[in-house]
């Protein structure tokens, strides 16, 4: 069995996954290896998933070893934000041609590209991504990266997640494995403290982690590494010295959290920063883990004081929106952590959840939804576009929260829609983020455009309106014979 095949099989038997823990030994080995449905690769391949997890590490050069078409434009492709270097937003590719492949020049071209990046950009590290083409022709990127690291004097990390091996989610996990194998633990920090934590699976979309970090700063808690949102290579490399960790997206990086706990005794819990109550519980969870690891218990009191103050401010700001949104029906077509955290957050201000997608949710996510909704009928694994359209056109929801792919279904049904996935332009995390989310929902629902587009069009309301529209002399002369024929046929007898 190849190293890649062994790594893939290892992700299928993830012991920290509740779904796998409930299976017998034989079923556990093959349960997660179910092949994707036809066309599922359109939602993202393993290469795409690996790049999503690693590209927000800002001071790293991300080199795609492939023909040009495998590299897309990385600028703002997921809305992740950086407070420092912008190197991660530059696209690098070896741009392999047919001649490179036929003549066996691809590995040589990879080394030349690595040397050129080092000389032109001086990055903290270079990540090299295998793709379908280079994996099929057998390029040994591990060997090339090792040789380049010795020659160039900087970390060169192979990311062996070619697209054909599986889904985007598998690529997320393979990216976590690459960090464990080549990055985390390679740098020893000289400033280790009792209040150091890691945040895993947080992508800092639209800069929303920046709404949470000040809260941790006020508690004296330092984020040693946020992986991957707004991360630096050295921070990730020294992440093994944190005292505790919070896992935001378990679907993507549960293997990373579990293995860091096994290797370096970093306990973790899964939480969310979406919603007032969820944010408060996340802060409590972090403080409690730190106390278990030896931090002063006084941090628990500081945390409760901060929570009380911030919740009071947030609820006061939300009272403005409650009369306008209370009782409004929401359809959430997302998944993962948002499938349950947004449900609870919106119900807190009096909105009604008519449905939430659990297609990308873990067993733990689904259990949380059941506890909040008390009705499994509002959970759906997947809903065909036709069904979504029928639900919205029949006015069973006042607004749909989803990603960009389904926005046109809502717009066709003349229903307000708000983007809550990676392309969004507003941060929704933390106390301030919850207020911003409610503000955007209010703007979407009460936008006057909906009352306009729901009115019947003039030609639907009065079939004769076309005849009464003013025309130029030439236009009248052209349509007069046709009008006579229509009247003769009786089509417009009522006119």
Automatic annotation (TrEMBL):
Function statement: This protein may play a role in the biosynthesis of the prosthetic group of nitrogenase (FeMo cofactor).
Source domain of life: Bacteria
Basic and acidic residues: bias regions: 18-29
Molecular function terms, GO-annotated: nitrogenase activity
Residue span, Nitrogenase/oxidoreductase component domain: 45-442
GO biological process terms, semicolon-separated: protein-containing complex assembly
Pathway membership, UniProt: Cofactor biosynthesis; Fe-Mo cofactor biosynthesis
Similarity section: Belongs to the NifD/NifK/NifE/NifN family.
Keywords: Nitrogen fixation
InterPro entries: Nase/OxRdtase_comp1, Nase_comp1_CS, NifE, NifE-like
Family annotation (Pfam families): Oxidored_nitro (PF00148)
Name listed for the protein in its UniProt record: Nitrogenase iron-molybdenum cofactor biosynthesis protein NifE
Region (Disordered): 18-40
NCBIfam families: nifE
């Amino acid at each position: 069995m190849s190293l890649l095949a062994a790594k893939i099989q290892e992700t299928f038997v993830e012991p920290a996954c509740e779904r796998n823990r409930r299976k017998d030994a034989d079923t556990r080995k093959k349960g997660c290896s179910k092949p994707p449905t036809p066309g599922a690769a359109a939602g993202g391949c393993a290469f795409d998933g690996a790049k999503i997890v690693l590209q927000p590490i800002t001071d790293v050069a991300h080199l795609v070893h492939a023909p040009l078409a495998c590299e897309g434009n990385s600028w703002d492709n997921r809305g992740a934000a950086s407070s420092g270097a912008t190197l991660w937003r530059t696209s690098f590719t070896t741009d392999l041609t047919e001649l490179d492949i036929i003549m066996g020049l691809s590995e040589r071209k990879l080394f030349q590209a690595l040397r050129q990046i080092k000389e032109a950009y001086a990055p903290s590290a270079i990540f090299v991504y295998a793709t379908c083409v280079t994996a099929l022709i057998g390029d040994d990127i591990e060997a090339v990266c090792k040789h380049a690291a010795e020659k160039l004097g900087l970390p060169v990390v192979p990311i062996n997640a070619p697209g054909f091996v599986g889904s985007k989610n598998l690529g997320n996990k393979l990216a976590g494995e690459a960090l464990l194998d080549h990055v985390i633990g390679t740098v020893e920090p000289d400033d280790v403290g009792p209040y150091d934590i890691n945040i895993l699976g947080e992508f800092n979309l639209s800069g929303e982690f920046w709404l949470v970090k000040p809260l941790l700063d006020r508690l004296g808690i330092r984020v040693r590494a946020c992986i991957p949102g707004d991360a630096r290579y050295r921070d990730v490399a020294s992440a093994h010295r944190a005292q505790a960790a919070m896992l935001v997206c378990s679907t993507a990086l549960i293997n990373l959290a579990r293995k860091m706990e096994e290797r370096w005794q970093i306990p973790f819990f899964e939480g969310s920063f979406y919603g007032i109550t969820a944010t408060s519980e996340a802060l409590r969870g972090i403080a409690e883990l730190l106390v278990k690891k030896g931090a002063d218990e006084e941090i628990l009191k500081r945390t409760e004081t901060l929570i009380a103050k911030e919740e009071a401010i947030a609820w006061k700001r939300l009272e403005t929106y409650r009369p306008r949104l209370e009782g409004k029906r929401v359809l959430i077509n997302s998944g993962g952590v948002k499938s349950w955290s947004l449900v609870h957050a919106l119900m807190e201000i009096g909105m009604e959840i008519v449905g939430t997608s659990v297609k990308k949710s873990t067993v733990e996510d689904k259990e949380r939804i059941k506890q909040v909704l008390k009705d499994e009928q509002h959970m759906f694994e997947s809903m065909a576009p036709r069904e979504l359209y029928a639900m919205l056109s029949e006015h069973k929801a006042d607004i749909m929260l989803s990603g960009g792919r389904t926005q046109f279904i809502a717009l066709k049904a003349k229903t307000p829609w708000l983007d809550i996935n990676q392309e969004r332009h507003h941060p929704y995390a933390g106390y301030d983020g919850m207020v911003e989310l409610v503000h955007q929902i209010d703007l979407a629902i009460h936008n006057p455009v909906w009352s306009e587009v729901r009115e019947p069009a003039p030609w639907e309301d009065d079939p004769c309106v076309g005849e009464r529209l003013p025309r130029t002399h030439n236009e009248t002369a052209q349509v007069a014979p046709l009008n006579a024929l229509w009247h003769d046929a009786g089509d417009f007898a009522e006119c």
